[in-house]
Amino acid sequence: MEVIFIIRAFKIRLHPTKKQEQLLFQSAGTSRFIYNWTLARQIENYNSGGKFISNNNLRKEITILKKTDLSWLNQVSNNVAKQAVKDACEAYVKFFKGKNGFPNFKSKKNSKKSFYNDNTKLKVKTEQVLLEKVGYIKTSEQIPIGVNYTNPRISFDNKYWYISVGVDQPPIVQKLNKELTIGIDVGIKDLAICSNGMTFKNINKSKKVKKINKRLKGLQKQVSRKYDKNKIKKGGENCYQFKKTKNITKLEKQIKLVYRKLAMIRNNHLHQATNKIVKAKPSKVVMETLNIKGMMKNKHLSKAIATQRLSEFKRQMQYKCEFNGIEFVEADKWFPSSKTCSECGHIKKALKLSERVYICEECGCVIDRDLNASINLSRYSA
C-alpha cells in the first residue's frame, strides 16, 4: 500500500553569531535587490514593446553583471539571486493571469527581510543547520533529519532570525468520532462559534491587546510629533523635507517590536483555537466561504476584519484537518446559514446584521444568531 505524505511546515528560531547575522542581512538585502532589479527589467521591457523575459535569460544577465557592475553578488549564495528572479517573474506572470495585483517593489525600510536557501544544500545536525556561505547556525529546536526538505526560507521578524522549511510526513492516523460534524461560524464579535458549543473570543477585545494598542498609539504620536519638529522647508509652498534623527529611529524600532508582539499574540490565539477544534476529533469540519475582499470594502469594519485574521484561521483549520485525516468542507457562499432556523428549517427573507438573536416566525425558536448559523453549517451537504 502506497503511503501518502503531507508537507508539514516547521518554523524554528536561529541563533547566529554576530558575523553570521551580518551575512544573513547581506543575503536578505541581495534577495530584495535582485527582486526589484528583475521587476524593473520586466517593466522596462514591456514598455518598449518586448515580450516577457524568462527567468533563465534574466539569470544569464545576472551572471554577466557579476563579472562587472555587481561583483558583490559573489559574496552570497548563488541560489539567493536565482530564487529572487524566479519569485519576481512568478508575481509578474500572476498579474497578467488575473490572479494577483501588480507586484510592488520591495522597500529597504518596510519589506520583510527573507531569502531562499537551496534545499539540496541544506544540511541538518543536532540542533544545527548549515546555510550556504553562512555556515552552521544553532537552532532552538531540532529540525527533522533524514527527510526531504521543501522551500527553505530564512526570515527576520525585526527581533529574531527563523528558518521555515517544509518536511514530508505521513498524516496522523487516529480514531475519529464519525457521528460528530463541527460547523464553524466566524465573525467579528467572536472569532469562531462552533456547533458543539465551543466559543473562541475575539482576542483584540482582551485587556492585554487593548493595553498594547494604547502603547502603540502613544509611540506613533511621539514619532509624528518628532517628524513635525524636524521638518525643513524645501522648494515651493507646502514642500518639506523630514530630518530623521536617532530618537526617531529608536521610536520606529520600538513600534516595529510592538507590531511584532501583536502579531504573535493573534497568531498564538488562532493556533490555540484551531488545535482545540481538531482535538475534538470530528469526522468533518464545515466552514462558510469567506469573501474577505468584499468584507474589507466596508470602511467601518475593515480594521476589525484585518486584525481578526479570518483568512489565516481558515488556512490553519484546513491544513490541520488534512494532517489529522479530518474532512474539511467549505459551504457554498449562497448557503443561507444565518437566515435558516436550526429547529424547523424555515428561511427568513431578510436578516439585518444588527440582529444578534435569531427569532423564528414559524416555530418561535430563539437562539444566538452565530450559534444558529454554526448548527446549520454542521448539517451542510454539498
Report on the structure:
This protein is an alpha+beta fold. It has 3 domains: 6-169, no CATH class; 172-208 and 258-382, Nucleotidyltransferase, domain 5 (2-Layer Sandwich); 209-257, no CATH class. It is built from 9 helices and 16 strands. It has a 7-stranded antiparallel beta sheet. It has a 5-stranded mixed beta sheet with strand order 10-9-8-13-14. Helix 4 (207-229) packs antiparallel against helix 5 and helix 5 crosses helix 8 (310-323). The protein starts with 5 loop residues before the first strand and ends with a helix.
Task: Indicate the topology.
Elements: E1 6-15, H1 18-47, H2 55-66, H3 78-96, E2 113-116, E3 123-125, E4 128-131, E5 135-139, E6 149-156, E7 161-169, E8 177-186, E9 190-194, E10 199-201, H4 207-229, E11 231-233, E12 240-242, H5 246-279, E13 282-288, H6 292-296, H7 302-308, H8 310-323, E14 327-331, E15 357-359, E16 366-368, H9 369-378
Parallel strand pairs: 8-13, 13-14
Antiparallel strand pairs: 1-5, 1-7, 2-6, 3-4, 4-5, 6-7, 8-9, 9-10, 11-12, 15-16
When the domains are counted, the total is 3
Beta-strand percentage? 15-25%
Low-pLDDT runs of 5+ residues are none
Total E-strand runs = 16
The strand line-up of the biggest sheet is 2-6-7-1-5-4-3
Rg, rounded, reads 25 Å
Reported for the largest beta sheet, the result is: 7 strands, antiparallel
Query: What is the 3D shape?
Result: globular
The count of helical stretches stands at 9
Oligomer: single chain
SS content category: alpha+beta
What is the residue-averaged pLDDT? Answer: 91
Span from first to last CA? 30 Å
Q: Percentage of helical residues?
A: 40-55%
The SSE order reads EHHHEEEEEEEEEHEEHEHHHEEEH
